[in-house]
Amino acid sequence: MEFESELAVHRTDIPGLVVLDLPVHGDNRGWFKENWQRAKMVALGLPDIRPVQNNISYNTSRGVTRGIHAEPWDKYISIAIGEIFGAWVDLRPGATFGRVFTCTLDPSKAIFVPRGVGNAFQTLADGTTYTYLVDAHWSLAQKRTYTFVNLADPDLAIDWPIPLTAAELSDADRAHPPLREVVPMAPKRT
Amino acid sequence: MEFESELAVHRTDIPGLVVLDLPVHGDNRGWFKENWQRAKMVALGLPDIRPVQNNISYNTSRGVTRGIHAEPWDKYISIAIGEIFGAWVDLRPGATFGRVFTCTLDPSKAIFVPRGVGNAFQTLADGTTYTYLVDAHWSLAQKRTYTFVNLADPDLAIDWPIPLTAAELSDADRAHPPLREVVPMAPKRT
Ligand SMILES: Cc1cn([C@H]2C[C@H](O)[C@@H](COP(=O)(O)OP(=O)(O)O[C@H]3O[C@@H](C)[C@H](O)[C@@H](O)[C@H]3O)O2)c(=O)[nH]c1=O
Ligand SMILES: Cc1cn([C@H]2C[C@H](O)[C@@H](COP(=O)(O)OP(=O)(O)O[C@H]3O[C@@H](C)[C@H](O)[C@@H](O)[C@H]3O)O2)c(=O)[nH]c1=O
């Protein structure tokens, strides 16, 4: 795997949700990437993230699906190895509430997800390893302040590459409400 | 892969070099870990890292070996997927100059490497993906301030699981000097 794109930041239709191209340097050993580089990325317009936590999820098989979770912190997400189909839903109050953006991410991409935007992904390869930085500490108490929406909601009409009936999900993620029952996420930290 | 150890911080014989046990939560989808969690880890005695960069290196095959590099910043290192044999050499001036620590790391471990301690690893599994946070920005100019020592130096006597003659290295890493020619790394940032 060799990618040699230039570092770049691309806006999407969801305000504040931005996709990044990351340079990946291949050689005889494998590859190396600056997965997140504050100075270069802020210069290109990425918010100045101050991470306090880095999480990694490992997904055994193709088709593992997680989401849709809007959380009370910003997230900078990328792929260590493998590939995902990602789906993001604006759950903030306002004109863009319910707007959906989807794309695939491999190790040469990253995405910045502002608080209040719902985050979900489905792995397209066995062993996909997903890593993200957040600017607040997770806790079970904080989890009660998440806003959730159902992956399968026909109003979102997300075209999952692997049908959700054949996908590996948590029981919690099967039980989230449809968009029409979602209360938009509070715009400020409480 | 399921690990359920408690978060813990362990000192080593090299001052400031600490190994961590990370809780890894397994379920039907794979696993999830807090790879770095500032508040919990500072409470256990880890230095209060303020990362500005996150790097990922992918290593195609078992036996890829990188190092030994002492850099002018602190590093928090862990494994996204796979396993390494790691070797660390104190290259700071003082009584512990030249002291070596080795151990294996898998996704349930991490290590904090203070500036001035040389860092190296050899992958024990194909596709090992290595991730680290640093508290200063890398640049080619900064690279000229690294202190290097040779992986094969008999004075270090590192017992690499895969002989270095059969390992995949960069040309740069084959050319580093032996310990007896190394000037200890300056104790302060310049
Ligand atoms: C999110 C999180 C979970 N955990 C624990 C709780 C559980 O034991 C285990 C798995 O938690 P779950 O909430 O089921 O993980 P999950 O993988 O379903 O949740 C994730 O889904 C992604 C779509 C979001 O972007 C992430 O931000 C996160 O919400 O990990 C932590 O210890 N720290 C954390 O920060
Ligand atoms: C370290 C680094 C490299 N690069 C580029 C330069 C090269 O094109 C490519 C590979 O660089 P190299 O120096 O050969 O990588 P390397 O994998 O040999 O270097 C690494 O070795 C580990 C043992 C150390 O812990 C790391 O801190 C780092 O020094 O990546 C960056 O763009 N940013 C960085 O921060």
Key attributes of the depicted protein:
homodimer, 190 residues, mainly beta, Jelly Rolls, six-stranded antiparallel beta sheet, 3 helices, 13 strands, binds 2'-deoxy-thymidine-beta-L-rhamnose, dTDP-4-dehydrorhamnose reductase (chains A, B)
Report the top-level CATH class of chain A: Mainly Beta
Number of helices of chain A: 3
Cα radius of gyration of chain A in angstroms: 16 Å
Using DSSP, what is the number of strands of chain A? 13
* Terminal CA distance of chain A: 44 Å
Family (chains A, B): Belongs to the dTDP-4-dehydrorhamnose 3,5-epimerase family.
Protein name (chains A, B): dTDP-4-dehydrorhamnose reductase
Active site (chains A, B): 69, 132
Organism (chains A, B): Coriobacterium glomerans (strain ATCC 49209 / DSM 20642 / JCM 10262 / PW2)
Describe this structure in words.
Chains A, B: Belongs to the dTDP-4-dehydrorhamnose 3,5-epimerase family. Belongs to the dTDP-4-dehydrorhamnose reductase family. Chains A, B: It comes from Coriobacterium glomerans (strain ATCC 49209 / DSM 20642 / JCM 10262 / PW2). Chains A, B: This is dTDP-4-dehydrorhamnose reductase. Chains A, B: Catalyzes the reduction of dTDP-6-deoxy-L-lyxo-4-hexulose to yield dTDP-L-rhamnose. Chains A, B: The active site is at residues 69, 132. The structure is a homodimer of 190-residue chains. By secondary structure, chain A is mainly beta. Chain A has one domain: Sandwich (Jelly Rolls). Chain A is built from 3 helices and 13 strands. Chain A has helices at 38-43, 140-143, 171-174; strands at 8-11, 18-21, 25-27, 30-37, 53-59, 65-70, 75-81, 84-90, 100-105, 109-113, 117-123, 128-134, 147-148. Chain A has a 6-stranded antiparallel sheet, with no helix packed on it. A 5-stranded antiparallel sheet of chain A has the order 9-8-11-6-13, with no helix packed on it. The radius of gyration of chain A is 16 Å and the shape is globular. Chain A starts with 7 loop residues before the first strand and ends in a 16-residue tail after the last helix. The interface between A and B is large, with 40 and 40 residues. One 2'-deoxy-thymidine-beta-L-rhamnose sits between chains A (55, 57, 66-67, 69, 71, 119-120, 138, 170) and B (25, 32, 34).
